[in-house]
Amino acid sequence: MLNAEALSFRKIDTVTRSKFEEYFEQGMTAAGASEFHSNQLDLDPDYDSCSLAVVRADAGLNPKVHCLILVCKVERDKPWQAAR
After folding, report:
1. How many distinct structural domains can be found in the chain?
2. Which residues contact 29 (CB under 8 A, 6 or more apart)?
3. What is the pLDDT of residues 47-81, one digit of tens each?
């Protein structure tokens, strides 16, 4: 049995994080990237309505905006850190 609350606490999956890094490189904000990614999940033919509900609850695959703000900040600070 899957628990939606437990899924909401999962760490962002490495593949998902890579996707968000690409979104941020394209200039998306955390909120915009989150919306875009959710729409991509909705359009993915691999997920039926039941599995899509699980994926949407899973923070590892569909991270919440407050987590993405931190990822976005880290990604945007990388060139600054390299220049030091």
Report:
1. 1
2. 72
3. 888 888 888 899 999 998 877 877 767 666 766 54
- d(Cα 77, Cα 84) in Å, to the nearest integer? 11
User: How is residue 3 written in tokens?
Assistant: 């628990």
Report d(CA 34, CA 84) in Å as an integer.
31
Tokens of 4: 């939606």
Domain with 77, as residue range(s), is 4-83
- C-beta of residue 26 within 8 angstroms of C-beta of residue 33: no
Q: What is the pLDDT of residues 29-56, one digit of tens each?
A: 889 999 999 999 999 998 888 888 888 8
Read off the pLDDT of each residue in 24-30 and give the average, rounded to a whole number.
89
